Amino acid sequence: MGLQVGVKGKQYPERLTTSYVRESDTFGRDEDKKKVIDLLLSSDASGNEMCVIAIVGMGGIGKTTLAQQAYNDSRVEQHFNLKIWFCVSEEFVMPMVEKSIIEAATSSPCPKFENPEQFRVILKKNLTGKKFLLVLDDVWRAKPDHREFLGQLLEYGARGSKILVTTRNKSVASAMHAIPHHLELLPKDDCWSLFEKHAFRNGSSNADPKIKEIGTKIMEKCKGLPLAVKAIGDLLWSESNVERWTNILKSNLWDLPMEGTYILPALRLSYNYLPSYLKRCFAYCSIFPKDHIFEKDQLVLLWMAEGFLQPIETMEQVGNCYFDDLVSRSLFQQSLETNSGFVMHDLVNDLAKSVSGQFGTDSLKKIVKMTRYVHLCESWGTFQDIKEDLLKAKQLRTFLTLRFSSVRFWENKMPRTILCLRVLSLGRIEYSVNKLPDSIGEMKYLRYLDVSGPQLYRLPDSICNLCNLQTLKLSSCLMLDRLPRDMWKLINLRHLEIDQTYHLKEMPIKMGRLNCLQTLTKFIVSKHDSGSGSSIGELGKLINLRGKLLIEKIQNVRSVEDAFDASLKDKAYLEKLVLEWSPLEEVLGISESQRGVLENLQPHEKLKSLTIVYYGGKGFPDWIGGLTSLSELKLFDCKYCSALPPLGHLPFLNQLEIKGLHGVVNVGPEFYGNCSNSSMKPFGSLKFLRLKNLSNWENWFYFGVQNEVETFSQLEELYIENCPKLRGMLPVYLPLLDKLEILDCQHLKASLSIDSFPVLTRMKIIRSDNLEFLALAKQHKHDGLLSKLKILLIDDCKKCELPMHQQFSSLEVLFLKDCCDSLTSFPLDLFPNLKCIRIDGCRNLQSLEQRGGDLVISEIGIWRCFNFVSFPKGGLRAPNLVMFTLKNCESLRSMPCKMHLFLPSLRYLELVNCPEVESFPEEEFPSNLKKIIILTCKKLIANLWKEILPRIEWLEIGGDESEDHVESFPGELLLPTTLTYLHIKSFGNLKSLDKEGFQHLTSLVELQIYGCPFLMYMPEEGLPASLRFLSIKNCPVLKKKLRSKKGKEWLKVTRVPNIVIDDRLIQGYRWQDWTFRYEYDHDLKFEQLTNCSRSVKLI
User: Which domain of life does the protein's organism represent (predicted)?
Assistant: First the structure.
């Protein structure tokens, strides 16, 4: 087909297994769970130096389920700082494991690295000092380098880190030097409980003793394998006929040998009893690789393209029924990771491949003459390499790709086998197709075409010759600016996905002739005089539309009558509708014609989600209040609307977002709808409410004094943002409110207490000066303030005070910034469960107090508290403290005493601009300390040369331009041999780096030097051989010596593989990748703070 594939190594699909498990589906594993958890929590796993534990057992016995149960246990959750779940499947690829660990540790996508060594550097940074649990699920084979790899990971992590492996093979456990836990067959009684749950409608077999007798015998044939029990139970679930149960019991399939196939007889039986139409659909799934997550809607469209669906109703409805039937038989399982994803167990995947024979494959090497369905997930050189194998398949019907590295098309005579395809999917290619050849128009039988991806910029006109095409997917084609003019000729097209095609200017002409169309994700209204596009009236002819529809550029609708011709009111199967005009900057003034257009774009009353954007009318039409099935409503940037539509009476509305309605001044009784004369609670189903950027909103009148308690009775999340004129109070009582955020509401007044929000757990208040936090009702004086509150952020609220006469018993995360001016001493004992605190800019704060026992806190940050002078007398007793940061505390003179005793878990210590701190305590440093940052602490740096630094791995040290006492580095300071990363900053008089100080740094990987204007000399003996990256910035004298790559100083650094000077790469790999770092974010957003109580990200 003119296909070229770039070689980038094997690409891997999404994993099957996840860390989640449904407890209701597990029986008889309590003792196994206890034993595995005990091994994970043990400080010394029976002397096993690598701390690897393996759950060993045959396929279908429940290894993954047991691992999931242990992984999600609350004790395991609290014991480990970091948990990672990775499904290995048939091939153990170490870079994929490394990537997964980095992403789990940082909650960020892992960058692409050109050098595998970069992975290890970043990996070490993110595991160092952390007690982690890594689950490697479904490991098939192990090599010596795998054991070394796992040992290296454990060496990076803190003592007590564990790796849990699940495998069918004892040899894997042995090769990894793992402690094995052999999972035995499920006991008879537990098998029966599981069988009952799946085989009987009410989960019990009490109805028919004969059925129970036969069921017991059938269950025994499953031989204690949970997967077999579930499969055969689901097969019998809808059967009440004794003869049918007897036939299954006596089936010869129970006697077929498993040797060589590993296919359970119960699974064979389950397949054997499928209707013929389901057998074809199931066998087709053999093209999916093991561990692949697939979506219901996509698979139904593939079945439809292959002609498997007989249109008793619509083909899509038939396909959905087929799919649900396979789910009910446990051949498909819903992924617990996503709502729309489904998976097949490995053994079920084996069954599909067995019954499909040579017709389907997910491997290029297995393509033969009879192959009809191919799903490839690898990269193989050029198109010629693939072409030869594809030519073997004389009856090829499906060609799917899964994450190819790159594919390019060019004009070429396509092989005849390609011409007969029904399905061609190139939509998951990493570097996607940029254009299709004109010759694609020769694929007369093609029914499914997916070329989604950001690179495609052109569709050839010849695509309009594909008269049998049913599905065309162009999602995320960011560069695509037009569709072929004659698309109306695709008379069998049923699904056209063009969402996220932001450069698409208009729809082609005569779109209304596509009368089979069911999915049209976007319709762009053309100007009436353009002659090249479709008017909105074409939508009226598409009577079968369903799902979601975005209508853009509605300002191009010529008249109110044209809007009526769209016939949205007749489209009963549309669930989600977005009506979007162009930004109002392009439309001058209030447009009453837009009011008429919107009036006639009334959708069917069954619509579930409605969004209106950039509407230029002054008011909303009445029909919005009549959408009785509506569950989601968004009104964005309708800036001339002066009143909100009546919504409170809508019975199913659970999410409401109103943003940028600058004409709204009052929100009054009309907002609550027709509730005053009925027993209906206004907004009785609403769970999420966001009111944002309402620049002229002044008053919020609530729904009658007598009925206030009944309003918003189900509301869980409330956000009020940038409403600077809003006055008055919040709703008096929100009984289920869980999360409250108020931002930039300078005139809003509220007294926030347990009376108003009895179950509130998360609160964020920013730049809202009139909010007076925390008046407490007398009747609740013993309950404590907002007794459920776990996370609290107050930022720049001048009148907001935190009362210190009661306990905050549930609070876990606290962030105070530029508030609480009356606070002089912070009593830590009032916060018994606090795990993360940052106090920033509390100008009168002088001390932290602790009178009770040990704290559970893991992070403390004191920033810009200029009068802060002291820690608790006798030391800060916080055995779980991991991160300790002090910034701009200009009056502070000393650190807490006895840090080595009271802060044994401390790993990260940072002092910035604390000029009066002279030294660390005389005792030892905390034993687990890994990273120290000291910047602009003049007295401390002057005395640091007297200190013996601990075995840290990261040191960042810097002064300011006035520092004149440091002429050489490290001088008398003895740097530890464990040092891996060294950053030297802003020493104004530094002239040289000492050879004696660097020679013993055999672990040093990265050296950065910044802002040392007089630095001239590198160490005489050169830099350590271990050094991989050198960065020099704002060091003009040294830069001059190095930039020519000549001379004595260059010879000292030339062996360093990667060198950057003033952000310019001088030598080696792309420095942006090499220096990519997941450091702790000191400007942490509030949402990120919610994770602080779980674990802290450290280098």
Answer: Eukaryota
DSSP 899-913: HHHH-TT--EEEEES
Query: What angle in degrees, to the nearest 10, is found between the helix axes of 226-236 and 209-221?
Result: 140
Q: Which residues are bridge partners to 1061 per DSSP?
A: 1032, 1064
57 within 8 A of 169, measured Cβ to Cβ: no
CA end-to-end distance (rounded Å), the chain: 49
**Residue-by-residue DSSP string for 781-841:** TTT-TTTT--EEEEEEETT-----SS--TT--EEEEEEE-TT--EEEGGG-TT--EEEEES
Task: Provide the CB-side half-sphere exposure for 40 (13 A, CA).
Answer: 31
Residue with token string 């597990």: 26
Q: How far apart are CA 912 and CA 958, in angstroms?
A: 9
Which CB contacts under 8 angstroms, 24+ apart, belong to 106-111?
106/1078, 106/1097, 107/1088, 107/1091, 107/1097, 108/1078, 111/1073, 111/1076
State the Cα–Cα distance between residues 233 and 195, nearest whole angstrom.
Answer: 5
Distance of CA 762 to the CA centre of its chain: 21
Question: pLDDT band at residue 1093, thresholds of 50, 70 and 90?
Answer: very low
> What is the distance between the alpha carbons of residues 298 and 425, in angstroms, rounded to a whole number?
11
**pLDDT tens-digit series, residues 136-190:** 988 888 877 888 888 888 888 888 899 999 998 888 888 888 899 998 888 888 8
pTM equals: 0.83
Query: Would you list the domain boundaries of the chain?
Result: 29-185, 505-628, 642-811
Distance of alpha carbon 923 from alpha carbon 901, whole angstroms:
9
Which amino acid is it at 334? Q
d(CA 1006, CA 122): 11
Convert the pLDDT of each residue in 36-65 to its tens digit: 999 998 875 444 456 899 999 888 888 888
Instruction: Give the CA distances from residue 988 to residues 984, 991, 1040, 1062, in Å, rounded to whole numbers and listed in that order.
Output: 11, 9, 17, 17
Answer for the pair 431, 6: CB distance below 8 angstroms, yes or no: yes
Q: How far apart are CA 71 and CA 137, in angstroms?
A: 12
Q: How far is CA 961 from CA 261, 526, 598, 938, 1013, in A?
A: 73, 63, 64, 11, 9
Q: Which DSSP state fits 1077?
A: -
Contacts of 271 (CB under 8 A, 6+ apart): 279, 282, 331, 351, 355
Of 207, 256, 201, the C-alpha closest to 233 is: 201
Phi-psi region of 913 (alpha: psi -120 to 50; beta: other; left: phi over 0): left
What are the beta bridge partners of residue 370?
none
Which residues, listed in sequence order, are joined to residue 86 by a DSSP beta bridge?
136
Q: How many CA atoms lie within 13 A of 830 on its CB side?
A: 17
